[in-house]
């Protein structure tokens, strides 16, 4: 027989999962010549309205990209840059290996849906500023000179508050 305590524990766990999942919000983004089929882009700390995601200094917003590869991929690296005016400033990531730090496991198979997810620290030293965020997933094994390393490229608008 199932005890009330067991049912309560299951309810608490399920409620926590639902609350954590609901923190992600679809965001407006531009696909900048991705080789992957980008299915959706979501972020935490983004409200229901507005064109810019407000990222609070001292926080760690998380980005989630759903995608399907068109070819087998053995390795992926993450690069994040903020465009301030005409200058690109790299965001420091503690782990730029998307296959170990991005909630996915490589190799990636053709046609399977993956949910890459990674956070980025918004340091207290960052000024209050509007930024264009360029989020890239790159294949370090692709040696082509035509920008072929870029498997995924998305651009979205944010503001540091």
From TrEMBL:
Signal peptide bounds: 1-20
Q: What is the lineage of its organism?
A: Eukaryota, Metazoa, Ecdysozoa, Nematoda, Chromadorea
Which keywords does this chain's UniProt record carry? Secreted, Signal
Report the sequence similarity comment from the record: Belongs to the NPC2 family.
GO molecular function terms listed in the Swiss-Prot or TrEMBL record? sterol binding
Question: Pfam families, per this entry?
Answer: E1_DerP2_DerF2 (PF02221)
According to the entry, every stretch annotated as the MD-2-related lipid-recognition domain falls at 29-158
Protein name according to UniProt: MD-2-related lipid-recognition domain-containing protein
**Looking at the record's lineage, which domain of life comes first?**
Eukaryota
Q: Which organism is it from?
A: Steinernema hermaphroditum
Q: Where in the cell is it found?
A: Secreted
One biological process term from GO is: sterol transport
